[in-house]
Write a structure and sequence with these properties.
- It is a single chain.
- The protein has 171 residues and is α+β, with helices and mostly antiparallel strands.
- The protein has one domain.
- The chain has seven helices and five strands.
- The protein has a five-stranded antiparallel sheet with strand order 1-5-2-3-4, sandwiched between helices.
- A hairpin with a 4-residue loop joins strand 2 and strand 3.
- Helix 1 packs antiparallel against helix 2.
């Protein structure tokens, strides 16, 4: 598994510069992250499905979390919601992003491909988590946000670990 692109380099750097919970967060990203390749939506969906996607998902720049959520909602049996990072500026910088996994094998990015006109096959993606509709809805209902599923689970892991530690000290 390739872990040598700029996204992993940044996470390694941040892990080395931080301590405590921040250090733990970047170490977790290094452990959980895996590179994936996106394909064109035209290779995965029929023309009828693409029309429905364009109508229902209301695809806009800077709305990747909402778009990925809506695609998962449109095809809950086929599509998972994915969070991670993607490179921009010809691979020079990684930013947080959301896209989708279709039929368990094809990654697609409606925002980059349809809203921004990017060639997704030439873009570097690092996935941190892939989630079903139930999980994404649960987090969205609690946070009132479309994104942040990976971070939500990470924070809850910390809280649970601290709760267990606190309970052990009481005994």
């Amino acid at each position: 598994m390739e872990k040598n692109n700029i996204i992993f380099e940044h996470w390694r750097t941040f892990a080395g510069l931080t301590d405590g919970r921040q250090h733990e967060y970047f170490e977790k990203k290094l452990k959980d992250g895996h590179t994936v390749k996106c394909v064109s939506v035209k290779d995965v969906f029929t023309s009828d499905e693409l029309r429905a996607i364009k109508t229902y998902c209301d695809i806009e720049p800077k709305m990747c979390y909402r778009t990925a959520y809506k695609l998962t909602n449109l095809f809950p049996e086929r599509v998972k919601y994915v969070e991670g990072e993607v490179t921009i500026f010809n691979g020079a910088l990684g930013i947080e992003h959301a896209w989708n996994l279709v039929d368990g094998e094809h990654y697609v990015d409606l925002t980059f491909e349809l809203a921004l006109g990017e060639d997704v096959a030439r873009t570097n993606y690092v996935a941190l988590g892939e989630y079903d509709l139930r999980t994404v809805r649960n987090v969205a209902s609690k946070t009132k946000l479309y994104g942040g599923v990976y971070d939500y689970h990470h924070i809850n892991e910390i809280k649970e670990r601290e709760r267990k530690t606190k309970n052990k000290k009481k005994k």
